[in-house]
Design brief:
Helices cover 29% and strands 30% of the residues. By secondary structure, the protein is α+β, with helices and mostly antiparallel strands. It folds into 2 domains: 99 residues, no CATH class; 126 residues, no CATH class. It has a 9-stranded antiparallel sheet with strand order 2-3-4-5-1-6-9-8-7, covered by helices on one side. A hairpin with a 7-residue loop joins strand 3 and strand 4. Helix 1 crosses helix 2. The longest helix has 20 residues. The chain is elongated, with a radius of gyration of 20 Å. The two termini are 20 Å apart. The mean pLDDT is 92.
Length: 256
């Protein structure tokens, strides 16, 4: 059996896929920022021709470094899109995402970013992150979220009984949030898993936030060999996602 990708699931839970790079001092805006916005648009407009200026674009760059200010979309209110701000650029996609298409776009967009930057030879990434948000419908207000995490996602989460025994406290959590991070060797960085209760389209859900990030000196490896970093990061996230949903959830997501 070949590799199964999230995008091959007819009923996939994906909310958004994000690839983000940052460069420069987090306290100082990139001096080249105003210039590269126009240059980048000229470079990508054949594919991302719709410009959307975010509210932050009205304020001086120093007020919010490493925050996107402009979006270039494939069509009005359509995805995927690319974003740019002082010291930050990102590629975002949603429900129509496929890994093959996302990878192609990433390998096209980020080299363009380096080409349009006037100091591309000196451009140093300080952070590179590949991140996926998934939402699994579950009414945590009336159901036992601890049991859902255990039975559906193979995660153990709980508190000792002594905290509740004889106390006027309901045992079922009103909400939940779990965050774990582990060092990785390929790519050099960390993998992070966040699990929390939330909503998708006003329906209660369990939200998965899975990301691989390389920060500081580790991000330089991504700059030197971006393709290898991207493939390695995706491989880790892909493995974790399918290991977590193995069983009932995978069967549910495979239904047409």
């Amino acid at each position: 059996m070949g590799v199964v990708y999230c995008d091959s699931l007819p009923n996939k839970p994906l909310v958004e896929a994000i690839l983000e790079v940052k460069w420069g001092d987090p306290g100082l805006p990139d001096p080249a920022y105003p210039m590269i916005v126009g240059r980048l648009y000229e470079s990508v407009k054949a594919e991302y021709g719709v410009v959307e200026d975010l509210e932050l674009a009205q304020f001086p760059p120093g007020l919010a470094v490493h925050v996107p200010r402009h979006r270039f979309r494939v069509g009005p209110n359509e995805w995927p899109l690319v974003q740019i701000g002082p010291g930050v650029a990102a590629l975002n996609d949603t429900q129509a995402y496929t890994w093959q298409d996302f990878r192609r776009r990433a390998l096209d967009f980020f080299p363009r970013l380096k080409k349009v930057h006037p100091d591309s030879d000196e451009l140093r990434f300080t952070s590179v992150k590949l991140q996926y948000f998934d939402a699994i419908e579950f009414d945590f207000r009336n159901g036992d979220v601890k049991q859902f995490l255990r039975d559906k996602l193979h995660l153990q989460a709980g508190l000792p009984d002594v905290l509740f025994s004889g106390q006027p406290i309901e045992r079922n959590p009103m909400h939940a949030a779990l965050q774990l991070g582990f060092a990785t060797s390929e790519p050099k960085g960390r993998i992070q898993l966040g699990v929390s209760t939330g909503h998708r389209e006003d329906k209660p859900a369990v939200i998965l936030d899975t990301a691989v990030a390389s920060v500081g000196e580790e991000a330089e490896g991504a700059r030197r060999d971006f393709e290898s970093w991207l493939d390695s990061a995706h491989s880790l996230i892909h493995h974790w996602f399918f290991a977590l949903i193995q069983g009932d959830l995978l069967e549910e997501f495979q239904r047409s």
